[in-house]
Design goal:
six-stranded mixed β-sheet; alpha/beta; homodimer; 31 strands; 679 residues
Chain lengths: 679, 679
């Protein structure tokens, strides 16, 4: 071992995975050596052997790469504090508390990922960025000087001094609840407290003694469902997720009927605000209970939602979003006390609403964009978040455009004769035999197909109750591929000769997917509803393609709808422009993920704010071409646009001409004629 | 008239009182010329002829001093806007709206004080500084762009753009109530609103159309009474003042009994907080009603009070102030939403609490110091604010010290046998004939002395109900000067031979000030109570004199007590160290004045915060010399300290020695001996 200039023996220390190295006097604490080298090691207790966040793992053996022999006797034996921590809280074998263990010789010391301050949350999909943990609020344990009559000073001022000297934090202000609880906390904790401090120096809460847990809530307020993800602000882990129906549904199933409710019932927005805020409290409580977390440990909320949900959650009357020019109250991010929106978690907790993009493109779209990051890619990506409105973003690192499209709720299974939400018992997959026209299907909650042996028994506990959005898409695509339905969306009554599943219904025909109780069928009206929805969706996307002047190279389907849909069937029906099917991904609740990113990483907030400011907003209502695109997009997959990528995978039926006997004006006529023929 | 470089005729304009001058093209608006020269002219409406704050007065005639001939035809005729304003709101003759009047020739234009942004509030006493009006919040009228579907942006963002372009204001954040009301305000006001913006860019409220009024409340929370002064934030004028008893009195007359109540009734602080906050709301409402002001026009509160009142108003449990080491929760200023202390004025109103100096030296002392400004003077000033505790500040521009002294409530007339608060019917002035020992007195609410003709009739409507603090001081000083009471505070029973107003009472003697119902007398116990109080007061002041090492050159008596007291009598009793009587001033409610300064001038807040940080805090409880000073100060005016300045004005009785028959240990012994003699 080398000797230092002051004659004291020194040891060579190498930290992995950073590779940072240096010589330190024997007797130096591992944490001090790490800090000296700028190695990133976490700590809440400030090196007092309480929090256990600074764990390291000496790697023993010879490391020729580092030119170090790292031996077991090169690190101190377990001391009293460390033993007590291991006994009380548990610690993996081989792990040491770097604030207690002392260097006694050359060592290679590994800093595991969970001991780093700037931990990363690794996301499952390789193409999206990991989340660096850098929350807006952190916990700091401090020892505070007792008051002294000879040098009178306020308790808060001595806490500030302690935070400055022990953590180099400048407290800029303290919330009133802190002032109200500080004196008792200091005395109950025998002048040791844990302080929750925001990045800007705001002291928002104090606990007596040591407090190691800090959580946040990522909240997605959908028109239909609300979900919260209780997230550990220090590890990034989601410790519980709960959801509930949005209670505003009683004021109207879709967004516009809720806005109409407010227009017709002045003050109605307050009922809706109360309903959503109450549910938020309920969900926060449920998530906390499930995870065994105290509500006061929830220090931060991030909320996303479409513009109307955003406004209602904030207590802003949404009527202006119900008519042109669809003016938002604000298109900036909103940060306030959770208390201001009546959410009862930690009294110092803040709530951050991601910015809305435009009158119909909400904070949810901002969150999806944040989560999916089209702005970091070369490829032109089309991001579609289908809710009651479709929110559509298109572009790449050079330019992003956004619009919304009034799809209505049909793609979610609403306003469909046998439609239902995606829940147990809902048909979610359908295949139709092109020869016999017989269907087979799968329901949510049962792993078997309807023609598998034992399906009746296996599906009995969930039943077969209806058909959800993805089921609707699949059955219609299969009907189209099997020739039951024409490219213009007419259920072909002549097919009734081939199969008794095609039956007349008024002046049109329906296709029976399932006989029995309930009978589940696809009616001509159902087809029309889906045509309108998908036409709007396609038209919005195509409008952005026109503006950008570049074709779609990649499609991201977000939202509950997107997570169940098979990209192939979406393409067969022509929901989105043609694209290599390998480049179509379903990403599930990306809005929730975006909320979680903004919860865990404060820089992500600035990022999404800049992003939203830069996105070019297109208002479909003022674009003449939207209507043209819409009309063309009513056909499957499209009246004129080619689908070369789709056709590599699927053989589309040859497009019939009017001379082939197809009724190009659809609905009534065809049915009437056929009925006459039948009668 | 000269010609400008572009050939257009120019005129010479001189603004008074600033003397700023310049040449402007004929046709320039007076306001534009003023702005160009940096002449300070107010405006809320931004030069739209609505607010009338930019009034100027052309001075007509020849001004050889300025080398200008200023003629009536050198300024435009009244235009439509100006006429409408004059008709609707009224305007003094000769006045013009500078935003409407146009320069048509050379002019001397006077800017009256009430048209300046940085107006000064002139205070009555010459020795104190005037208040420059520079409030934390100002009103700005703006015209906002309407939303446009082709360029979608939030309503708030367009308001921000308008405030930037029309007022050069960068809005940093908007309160939630602004977001909740903004859209309606914009549409109701036809895209014209008035915004209340704080100095730091926080947008706190919006009104549709023009709103010209902004008020603040200066609040003094005394242990006994609470008072609010509703103040115009634009003119500095106090538009109404109301007061009420502090409702906490039901929990204890003096401060310490209230703290004891909390100690014995956990949670009792919440009752007291609720009581004081409710009263604050009541007083705010009353002040607003009296002045015809809408509660939403109250945009700011400044609060002062002793540490216990400060803590209770904020909802902080004051128990720590009840025992050593008397730790404050904070000794910094506290700024929060008025809503957080449950005061319902404008929802965006903030409340600012001046900082407390130390555990027994409150925000009221800070306010008194701010109002009186000893830190700007050469003379060593002693500032005494007598409440239940005396808060004492001593020093000059070089150094300030502060302490508090436990005087108890005797100096305010409490715990005195015939004592009462200063109210109608209370004896406030007393003179005793040194020969006959007959008293004469005045009561509050009656201008006559008790020996004036017609006193019985004149005083009948208020009655004679008791004796208040200043009456107590005067009667005791007169008793001492007349020889009825010794320097050691013994009422001399031998004087009973001279006057039947000296009567035995138990083992001591009393002096009857008024016979009848109620009989008003000064008992030996009353004298003892005053001795204890004034001894404590003197000792605190003397302790500071010791620390400073310099004698008192000036005395400021603040508080309700101070405002009624005659400095000579305060000195005769030795309440404060000797000082030139011409240098003793009573300043009334200086704490309220300090609050008003902090309300009207935002820089005063930084000033008082620095001041409080710099004041040296002396804790009397740990100073051994305090007890010595206290014992010496029990005598009138003092056992040993000379009162040369006082003796220039008043002949003090020669000090008797023990041999002269005085009983130096006082109370019981003297009485007993005398009774024996009598018996």
């Amino acid at each position: 071992m080398p000797e230092s200039s002051n004659g004291k023996e020194e040891a060579l220390i190498v930290f992995t995975p950073s590779g940072k190295r240096g010589s330190f006097p024997i007797g130096t604490k591992v944490l001090d050596a790490a800090r000296h080298l700028g190695v990133d090691i976490d700590s809440v207790c400030g090196g007092r052997g309480i929090c256990g966040r600074c764990q390291v793992q000496p790697s023993l053996g010879d490391f020729p790469k580092f030119n170090v022999k790292s031996h077991a006797d090169h690190i101190s034996e377990f001391g009293a504090k460390e033993l007590r921590y291991k006994e009380k809280r548990g610690m993996k074998d081989g792990r040491r508390l770097s604030c207690s263990a002392v260097i006694e010789g050359d060592l290679v010391i590994d800093v595991p990922a969970d001991s780093q301050v700037h931990k990363q949350v690794v996301r499952k999909r390789a193409e999206v960025r990991n989340i660096e943990i850098d929350p807006v609020v952190r916990l700091h344990y401090v020892e505070v000087e007792e008051p002294d009559m000879h040098h009178p000073s306020g308790d808060l001022e001595r806490v500030k001094t302690a935070l400055k000297s022990q953590w180099d934090i400048d407290v800029t202000r303290a919330d009133l609840p802190v002032l109200q609880t500080l004196q008792k906390a200091l005395r109950d904790g025998e002048w040791k407290i844990t302080a929750a401090v925001r990045y800007d120096g705001e002291l928002i809460y104090v606990w007596p003694g040591f407090q190691g847990n800090a959580y946040g809530l990522a909240v997605d307020i959908g028109s239909t469902t609300m979900s919260v993800h209780l997230t550990d602000l220090q590890t990034g882990e989601v410790v519980s997720s709960v959801g509930a129906m949005n209670p505003q549904i009683r004021f109207g199933e879709d967004l516009m009927s809720r806005v109409s409710y407010v227009m017709m019932n002045p003050g109605g927005e307050q009922e809706m605000t109360a309903a959503v805020q109450e549910t938020l409290n309920f969900l926060a409580g449920q998530a906390a209970t499930e995870a065994g977390v105290d509500l006061t440990e929830i220090l931060e909320l991030v909320l996303v939602g479409n513009p109307i949900m955003h406004h209602l959650a904030l207590g802003i009357n949404p009527v202006e979003l119900g008519w042109a020019p669809f003016a938002l109250a604000t298109n900036s991010a909103v940060e306030l006390w959770a208390d201001e929106i009546n959410v009862r978690v930690n009294p110092g907790a803040r709530a951050y609403f991601l910015p809305c993009v435009a009158g119909h493109v909400g904070a949810d779209a901002a969150a999806v964009t944040l989560a999916e990051g089209p702005q970091y890619r070369e490829e032109i990506t089309l991001v579609v978040d289908v809710g009651t409105n479709a929110e559509i973003v298109l572009g790449n690192k050079d330019r992003l455009l956004a619009c919304s499209s009034p799809t209505g709720p049909a793609l979610e299974g609403a306003q469909i004769s046998s439609g239902q939400r995606a829940a147990n018992g809902a048909i979610e997959r359908v295949r139709i035999d092109p020869e016999t026209l017989e269907p087979r299907f799968k329901v949510i909650g049962c792993d078997l197909w309807s023609d598998d042996d034992g399906f009746e028994l296996a599906s009995a506990k969930v039943g077969v109750t209806g058909i959800c959005g993805s089921g609707i898409i699949e059955v219609m695509a299969e009907m189209f591929l099997a020739g039951i339905m024409s490219a213009d969306g007419i259920i072909d009554g002549s097919m009734a000769e081939k199969s008794d599943r095609i039956v007349p219904e008024g002046r049109t025909f329906s296709y029976i997917v399932r006989r029995g109780e309930p009978e589940i069928r696809v009616t001509q009206a159902d087809v029309r509803a889906i045509q309108l929805a998908k036409g709007a969706l396609y038209a919005g996307a195509q409008l952005l393609v026109d503006k950008l002047g570049k074709p779609v190279e990649r499609v991201v389907l977000a939202g509950a709808f997107g997570s169940h849909i098979d990209p192939k069937y979406a393409m067969v029906l022509g929901l989105v422009p043609d694209c290599d099917l390998d480049k179509v991904v379903s990403v599930g609740n990306a809005a929730g993920t975006g909320a979680r990113i903004a919860l865990l990483n404060r820089k992500a907030r600035g990022e999404v704010e800049r992003l939203v400011a830069d996105i070019e907003k297109i208002e479909t209502a003022v674009e003449a071409k939207f209507q043209d695109h819409f009309v063309g997009a009513m056909a499957f997959p499209h009246k004129t646009a080619p689908y070369p990528n789709l056709q590599k995978v699927v053989a589309l039926p040859a497009r019939k001409t009017a001379q082939d006997g197809d009724d190009s004006d659809g609905t009534a006529g065809g049915g009437r004629r056929r009925r006459r023929r039948r009668g």
